[in-house]
Each structure stands twice: as structure tokens, then as C-alpha cells.
Specification:
- By secondary structure, this protein is mostly helical.
- It folds into 2 domains: about 30 residues, no CATH class; about 150 residues, Serine Threonine Protein Phosphatase 5, Tetratricopeptide repeat (Alpha Horseshoe).
- The protein has 12 helices and no strands.
- It is elongated.
- It starts with a helix and ends with a helix.
């Protein structure tokens, strides 16, 4: 097995790459458990760091950073990282910072991708920024995927149960029975708290 893999890898490397191949511990890669010790598993690059820093700046300073325009150039993955960083800082994130982000980027109305919009709506609802309710209602009326429904209804169950239940009762018939059961449990748990 080792010889086959080594030959395969060698066929894709330049002919002068024997020094590279000599450094590879084939037994470690093929026969040991877990990640090899000498592999860098740190995946932070300058773009990811930029997204993390931008989110942290809004949370820490509650003002628009000088480099705020970078957000508009972010690919989807970086916008997701930005949102996840905000969610990770939910305890220190304020409604003022969220409203400022929305003012700078118009996330509530302009974001079309649910991988970014759902965490955004979750944040807005959790921090009682109910100006996002219209967009949340529109989104909940047109999507039935549990992955997207659960975070939004969970935020409503914790922050504004009456509105969440209103939307849920209005759109419940559109959702799959498994999603209905899960959301029923979310609101039941909120009722017992």
C-alpha cells in the first residue's frame, strides 16, 4: 500500500522532488491513528482574520470601522464566518452594534443567502431588534427546511414568543411534520421556563 501511494504521489510531483518525498513519513500517514503530528491544522488566512476582526470591532467598539467596506467584497464563506463570530460573542454583542451593522451593510433586506440570513435574523431577534420581523416573516413563509427554521423559532421562543407563535401558527402547514414536531418542542420548552 505504501509503495503504491508513494508512486502515485511521485507521479504528480516534478522529477527533482526526491527531497520532498524523503521528508514524508509514510507509515505515520498510512498506519497511525489520528492526524500526523507535523501537519498544520490552522486554517486562518488573512481573509478569515479580516472577517473575524471586523465582527470583533463592531462588538468591541460599537462604531463603524474604517475598513467596513471590506465586508461588501467578502465571499459567502467570509460572510458566514463574520456571522458566526457575532454569534460567538452574543453575550457582549449589543442591539446598537447590530443596528449599526445593518445600517452599514443592509443585511436584513439585502442578504439573499440563508446561510448568512438565518444567523443574522437569529441575532436580530435575540437582541430584540424587531425591525427584522418583516424579513423574518417573509423568510419563514417561504422556506420549510428545519435547518433554517429552528434557529429563528428558537430565538423567537426566547425573545418574543408571541410573535414567533403567531408566525409559526400562520406557516406551520407549510412545514414538514418532523420540522413541525421540532418547533412544537421549542415552544413547549419555552412555555415551561
Amino acid at each position: 500500500m505504501k509503495d503504491t501511494l508513494e508512486s502515485y504521489v511521485q507521479s504528480y510531483l516534478p522529477t527533482n522532488s526526491t527531497k520532498i518525498l524523503e521528508k514524508i513519513d509514510w507509515n505515520m500517514w498510512l498506519f497511525e491513528v489520528g492526524m500526523p503530528r507535523n501537519v498544520n491544522t490552522e486554517f486562518i488566512n488573512p481573509q478569515i482574520q479580516s472577517a473575524l476582526n471586523l465582527a470583533n470591532y463592531y462588538v468591541d467598539h460599537q462604531e463603524s470601522p474604517a475598513n467596513k467596506s471590506e465586508y461588501k467584497s467578502y465571499i459567502l464563506d467570509l460572510r458566514i464566518i463574520f456571522m458566526k463570530q457575532l454569534i460567538g460573542r452574543l453575550d457582549t454583542l449589543t442591539d446598537k452594534a447590530l443596528r449599526l451593522i445593518d445600517s452599514d451593510f443592509n443585511v436584513t433586506q439585502s442578504e439573499a443567502n440563508p446561510e448568512v440570513l438565518v444567523p443574522w435574523l437569529r441575532l436580530m431577534i435575540s437582541k430584540r431588534c424587531f425591525e427584522a420581523n418583516g424579513r423574518a416573516k417573509l423568510f419563514l413563509s417561504g422556506i420549510g427546511r428545519q435547518k433554517y427554521l429552528v434557529p429563528i423559532y428558537t430565538a423567537y421562543a426566547q425573545a418574543d414568543k408571541a410573535t414567533g407563535l403567531k408566525y409559526y401558527n400562520e406557516f406551520r402547514y407549510k412545514y414538514h411534520p418532523i420540522a413541525q414536531r421540532r418547533i412544537d418542542l421549542i415552544f413547549a420548552a419555552a412555555e415551561s421556563e
